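Sanity check

After download, print the first record. It should look like this:
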Amino acid sequence: MHQDNTDDSREAADDRGRDVLGELIQVAGRRPSPSSDHYEQTLAAAHAVWQQKVRATRQRQRVVAVAASIAIVAMGIGAVLRLLPDTPLPPIASAAVIQGDVAVFSPESGTWAPVTETGSELGAGDRLRTDSEGRAAFRLGDQISVRIDSASELMFTSESELELIAGAVYVDSGAGNRAGSLEIATSHGIVQDIGTQFEVATMDDGLRVRVREGLVQLYQAEQELAFEGRAGQEFRVDPVGTIRQNSFSPYDPAWSWAEALAGSPNVEGMPVLEFLNWVARETGREIQFEGRNVQLAAGSAILHGNAQNLTPMEALEVMLSTTNFVYSLDTSGAIIISRRSITR
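Expected structure tokens:
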């Protein structure tokens, strides 16, 4: 009996809930249907979102495919390279003159090794060091002569850049116009040649640059041009960056160490005039002739013999002794060429 009363109470409560819900629906009324324009806009927006998601999915698939292809190609290249023998980088410099103890440090070996023969080659990144009595000359690229003084250290960065770590280096970039063919990096800036002969030396009190021929430029912080040195000038840079300049003769005896590394050319069969031009360039002296006829004769006369292991002035003395020409030095330092007197 008690169970029946409980069931009747629940049914009555459900009827009252349904009546309330129905009354609310009747009061709210029928919800208006969306217009066809609203329907089309909603459909278009949903379609656009769907297309965007599809494009993003395809893009991710393409990226993954490309990355996979690159990885496969890289693995293939790596496998081929492992099968190929090691190919060393081409040398950038070769030894022309070696005097005394000279050593080279190679990044590949990680050790210093002596350099004893001409023709020895250096690669990019190699460092050259000379002891207190050692000197060396190297041919850099096609025609640049690089000469390293005693107690010096130099890094061959590339065919167009050297780094002077200590000591002094002399550069002859050739007689032609080779503007900006070589840069020498130092702790006081970068020295750049404009087709010239010059010397760069590290000093206890800074940097010294001597210009024998042509023009050099010194660039300091932020690659700003700090100074231009011309033939016959010397300039020094002190530790705080102050630059001082003075005159310096192109045939001053201080150039003698670089002249000793000139390396005499093969003079056999060379015209006298060509040989004299070589002497003039290596000594910084001007060649003058006692008359036009003497100059013409020097152009047609041929040398015979050997001038190896001689300085330019020594070679001049030896080689002219085999000809009808003699030389003398005037007060300006020029080399005067004249005909040999004939004695009876």
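If your output differs, re-run the checksum step. Summary of this record's structure: Residues 264-339 form a domain with the Phage tail protein beta-alpha-beta fold fold (CATH 3.55.50.10).
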